[in-house]
Specification:
Blueprint (H helix, E strand, L loop, with lengths): L3 H13 L1 H34 L8 E6 L17 E2 H10 L3 E11 L8 E3 L2 E3 L2 E5 L3 H4 L2 E6 L4 H6 L3 E5 H7 L10 E4 L2 E11 L13 E5 H7 L5 E2 L1 E6 L5 H15 L10 E5 H44 L1 H9 L4 H41 L13 H27 L3 H6 L2
Parallel strand pairs: 6-11, 8-10
Antiparallel strand pairs: 1-13, 1-14, 2-12, 3-6, 3-13, 4-5, 4-9, 7-10, 8-11, 9-10
Helix pairs in contact: 2-9, 2-11, 9-11, 9-12, 11-12
């Protein structure tokens, strides 16, 4: 433990070398400051990209049909085929790794430009989707009013509709309650049973979700003469089962059912969200690793400066160290003194850098939120508490490291030589 006189001696030494001390401390300050800023920016970038996914099931994949490219079992190359209703139960019965299975079919797209929905004197062009209840488990949405499609709607082929927020704005007045009212889709009346707001905006099927209308899958098939055609399958794997494993089994099984050559890789279109999410996670992990490497490198530059200033302090306290050794101070006592002083100087500069960095990140976050400038590319920059603690631990470690060489030099000082030093 240091007494008051010792601390006064330390401050006196630092004051004598105030320019060098300031520049050294600023190096540590800048290193930790830049580390925090870069980590906060990396988090903001990650939040911006991933927040648009909402709660979309990342263990999901999608499969649809495409023209064949290999002739097989008497069928020519270029044959078109469709999934059918009996594929639904067959998949459930034969692929036990499937958690959620949501057959989908799209009637019309909002991008067609043709008004397909009418209510009184209002019309609009919207995406009309035929869905199963499980779709809301794969791509969860916030139900603002009413409910989503349920199993009874599917079995009874009810003419009910769940509309997006933009659909409500176009077809209804602000003070009107859409629940229970009717809209006309391509000449057929449907009763509105729910209004939803999408939580995921990055993954769209058939147009912007706010401009979508969901009706029961079976109702769309029967009402608009789709027969038993299934547009595509949305599937999630069970917990702890890779979606890619289930995807491979599903495609192989469907190929067998529809007489597709086992080597025809183009007959099925498919998109694996899990693999894309893993790539994105790997990218952000790489960015985070690069940030730590650059930040710690910058911090080490400051640590070298701390080590240099401690060497100056040891040199100017040569006589004092010699006296301590002469009256019985052990090498461990001397080493602990030097390292403690080094840690103090490093921690002091680093603490201000840490506080300044966190304050700037929070200020940027506040400015983005208050101005509404956050978007799908950059949102909610922040510094995790664990990261701040990790940075503090790094500070302590590097401070001790910076004092190691000066401490070794200090214990090599012989008392007789130190007492002769002027």
């Amino acid at each position: 433990m240091f007494d008051r006189d010792r601390w006064q001696e330390i401050f006196h030494t630092l004051k004598k070398n105030k320019l060098r001390t300031f520049m050294t401390a600023f190096g540590v300050f800048w290193g930790i400051f830049m580390l925090i800023i870069m980590l906060g920016s990396g988090t903001g970038l990650e939040h911006g990209v991933t927040s648009g996914m909402g709660n979309f099931a990342t263990n999901s994949f999608f499969v649809w049909t495409q023209p064949t490219t290999i002739a097989y079992k008497g069928f020519p190359r270029g044959r078109r085929f469709h999934f059918r209703n009996d594929d639904i139960q067959a998949l459930r019965d034969n692929i036990p790794e499937i958690k959620y299975l949501a057959p989908k079919i799209q009637g019309w797209s909002s991008g067609d430009g043709t008004n397909n929905t009418i209510r009184k004197d209002k019309t609009g062009a919207f995406s009309i989707m035929g869905d199963f209840p499980d779709w809301n488990k794969i791509d969860p949405m916030e139900i603002l009013e009413g409910r989503f499609i349920n199993d009874i709607d599917i079995r009874q082929k009810r003419k009910v509709a769940v509309i997006g927020t933009r659909v409500k704005e176009v077809l209804f007045e602000p003070d009107e309650d859409p629940i229970g009212d009717y809209i006309q889709i391509q000449g057929i009346y449907f009763q509105v049973v729910g209004v939803f707001k999408p939580l995921n905006t990055n993954i769209n099927f058939g147009g912007e979700k706010e401009q979508s209308i969901f009706i029961p899958f079976t109702t769309l098939q029967k009402t608009y003469n789709y027969g038993d055609i299934v547009g595509w399958f949305s599937i999630t794997s069970k917990d702890h089962v890779k979606a890619s494993v289930v995807e491979e089994k599903v495609i192989k099984f469907l190929a067998s059912r529809h007489d597709i050559h086992p080597d025809d890789k183009e007959a099925f279109g498919h998109f694996n969200l899990e693999s894309e999410f893993d790539k994105m996670t790997g990218l952000f992990n790489g960015i985070s690793g690069l940030i730590w490497i650059v930040g710690i490198g910058t911090l080490l530059a400051g640590v070298i400066g701390i080590s240099n200033i401690m060497l100056v302090i040891v040199k100017e306290r040569t006589k004092e160290i010699g006296i301590q050794r002469a009256i019985g101070a052990t090498p461990l006592n001397i080493i602990s003194q030097i390292i403690t002083e080094s840690v103090f100087l490093t921690a002091l500069a680093g603490y201000f850098g840490l506080v300044a960095g966190v304050a700037l990140v929070e200020a940027i976050n506040y400015a983005l939120v208050s101005s509404g400038a956050d978007n799908e590319m950059f949102k909610r920059p922040e510094v995790d508490f664990k990261i701040a603690v990790t940075a503090l631990v790094i500070l302590i470690f590097t401070g001790a490291l910076a004092g190691l060489i000066p401490a070794q030099r200090a214990i090599r000082i012989k008392p007789i030589d130190a007492l002769r030093d002027e």
